[in-house]
Design brief:
Strand content of chain B: 15-25%
Subunit structure (chain B): Part of the multisubunit transport protein particle (TRAPP) complex.
Number of helices of chain B: 3
CATH topology of chain B: Beta-Lactamase
Largest interface: A-B, 34 and 32 residues
Family (chain B): Belongs to the TRAPP small subunits family. TRAPPC4 subfamily.
Number of domains of chain B: 1
Largest sheet of chain B: 5 strands, antiparallel
Number of strands of chain A: 6
Helix content of chain B: 25-40%
Shape of chain B: globular
Order of helices and strands of chain A: EEHEHEEEHH
Strand order of the largest sheet of chain A: 3-2-1-6-5-4
Order of helices and strands of chain B: EEHEEEHH
Shape of chain A: globular
CATH class of chain A: Alpha Beta
Strand order of the largest sheet of chain B: 2-1-5-4-3
Keywords (chain B): Endoplasmic reticulum, ER-Golgi transport, Golgi apparatus, Transport
Strand content of chain A: 15-25%
Distance between the termini of chain B: 5 Å
Subcellular location (chain B): Endoplasmic reticulum; Golgi apparatus, cis-Golgi network; Golgi apparatus
Number of domains of chain A: 1
Oligomer: heterodimer
CATH architecture of chain A: 2-Layer Sandwich
Structural class of chain A: alpha+beta
Protein name (chain B): Trafficking protein particle complex subunit
Distance between the termini of chain A: 5 Å
């Protein structure tokens, strides 16, 4: 399976963590070697050009606006207790999970993937809560993504993704 | 099979047809529906822009003329929520058909194709219909009803 990108948005509409594996890593290549090399996040994309950075920042804002509007549309049509799960286009699929505290977890994969909501929930419960919320040195809020992309979280995410979403 | 509703959105983003078959979704005022259609039109364009691997145009082989149709990323096709599933079909001219069904509904794509056929037959071939305007064609309504009820 192909994984394109992963985002976390906090309740203030800010993207506090992003990680992308684009341009698409070859689906056939061994996952263990390709993933760490091509990964980039807010803290580790120092080698990207300014234009690429700008495009990434734009994408983050677009995705936030999009899931926010889709969620509102769904609540309008299906009632207050309806939740947005995912959408699919001809090229990719977006999975969505929102915690009770309005944090949003978004993952973009190829179209053949079933719903990844349980996995996003696990990332929140087992990685985000464990390594970011319970970290005494991390701030309560994460303006600009401070305190989220720590080593434990990055490594845990890497291990989780290679374990449950084999390439 | 439970089909909740059908919307048709013109290429400019206006709601030109809406029809409810089964209750199950919230009743919205026509103003709200128009707003919803307009914002969906925009969201559809954004989903197309966000494509992480845009399709490339096939290189024309030597004995064929290059195709005038560009392969572009399609926008949103299926939207899933816990209460319903929305299938979107966009025609080559930009008209969008939205079909709201139960979450576990199979084969919605084929249903939409058939509805598109009905649209072509009873709306586009109606000499009194002006394009981009709200659809008021009795025959289309009747055939649509018949089709959805037979499947249901």
């Amino acid at each position: 399976m192909v994984l394109y990108s992963f985002y976390i948005f906090d309740r203030h509409t800010e993207c506090i963590y992003s990680r992308r594996w684009t341009p698409a890593r070859p689906a056939s290549a061994g996952s263990k070697t390709t993933r760490p090399q091509s990964g980039s996040s807010i803290t580790s994309n120092g080698d990207a050009t300014p234009a690429q950075n700008r495009k990434q920042a734009d994408d983050e804002k677009l995705i936030f606006g999009l899931v926010f509007s889709l969620r509102n549309m769904i609540q309008k049509l299906g009632g207050e207790d309806d939740t947005f799960l995912s959408y699919r286009t001809g090229e990719y699929k977006l999975h969505y999970y929102e915690t009770p505290t309005r944090m949003k977890f978004v993952m973009l994969t190829d179209t053949k993937q079933n719903n990844l909501r349980p996995y996003l929930h696990q990332i929140w419960a087992n990685l985000y809560v464990e390594y970011v919320v319970k970290n005494p040195l991390a701030p309560v809020e994460h303006p600009g993504g401070i305190g989220v992309a720590n080593e434990m979280f990055e490594r845990g995410l890497e291990a989780f993704i290679t374990a449950v979403l084999p390439a | 099979m439970v089909v909740f509703a059908l919307f048709i959105i013109s290429k400019a983003g206006g709601l030109i047809y809406n029809r409810e078959f089964h209750s199950g979704m919230n009743k919205l005022s026509s103003n709200d529906l128009l707003m919803l259609a307009g914002s969906f039109h925009g969201m559809h364009a954004i989903t197309r822009q966000l494509c992480p691997n845009p399709p490339t145009n096939p290189t024309p082989s030597s004995n064929l003329l290059p195709t005038p149709f560009h392969t572009r990323a399609t926008g949103l096709e299926v939207l899933e929520s816990s209460q319903f599933r929305m299938q979107c079909f966009q025609t080559l001219t930009g008209t969008k058909f939205l079909l709201f069904t139960e979450p576990q509904q199979p084969n919605t794509e084929a249903v939409l194709k058939k509805i598109y056929e009905l649209y072509a037959d009873f709306v586009m071939k109606n000499p009194f219909y002006t394009v981009e305007m709200p659809i008021r064609c009795e025959k289309f309504d009747r055939n649509l009803d018949g089709f959805v009820k037979v499947r249901g």
